[in-house]
Amino acid sequence: MFALPAYIIIAIFLFGIGTLGVLISRNLIIVFMSIELMLNAANLALIAFSRALNVTDGHAFVFLVLTVAAAEAAVGLAMVITLYRNRGTVNIDRFNILKW
Amino acid sequence: MTVDAVIFIISAVVAVFGAIMMISLRNPVLSVLSLIVSLVAQAVLYIQLGALFLSAVLIIVYSGAILVLFLFVIMLLNLRGSEEMGQHSSPSRLFAKFLLSLLLVVELVFVIKASFFSSDAAVGIMAAPTNGFGSVETVATLLFTKYLYPFELTSILLLAAIVGAVVMARQDNHADRPNSDPKSAEPDNRFTEEMKK
Question: What pLDDT, on the 0 to 100 scale, is given for residue A85?
């Protein structure tokens, strides 16, 4: 069994990779998947802290985060389908009406 | 080096590698598959941390439901790694974005490090878990007693998500919108013309 910081470092790396994916990806679906990855990194940190402090409360939080992730994926993919139907692309550079 | 350490290193490397492949691959289907690889490795880390129930939930909900939904949408939209989609931004911008996320990682590491050294919580090798730590029983007891109210609120969230997904993805056949004829394959022109200004 490793110490707590090892798991937290892995979670931080996964969160950073997710941020990088949101920034550099041009595909709306891959941006959504990067957001899912960031949620998972937060889950890993919650579980690691929960294990280190020997309380199960973190597991309940992770359960709720998983529910939010599922709801977000369903609504987000519906939005992707609607955008694709309206514009014929999922390239996020084409969705710049709200961009100043 | 114990077996635990070997398992930790392998699954951590696979998790990070899968995540890197996810953001760097051009083909969205391969991207989804490498995210599944990363999530399975994360489930192994969950098991090491004693969260047996949640690792099963992670595999069932993520690999079984959410990522299959992603794959389904990719197949439905018939997305390929098209040439337009494959272009990343210019190297200088890419470098700036990379630098920004690296800055975020460094910041997070410093925050975590500072909090570790300022608090008196034990951060060394973790103690043995209490009996039944992370089992279905303990998590369910917590969810239905201490966190009953948030747990019930998630049902409202799921209901809103179902209604929202159905309403948004519905084919709009009403005549009050121009260009909403489902037979016309061309995209809606109202926005593209606005974009050219």
Answer: 85
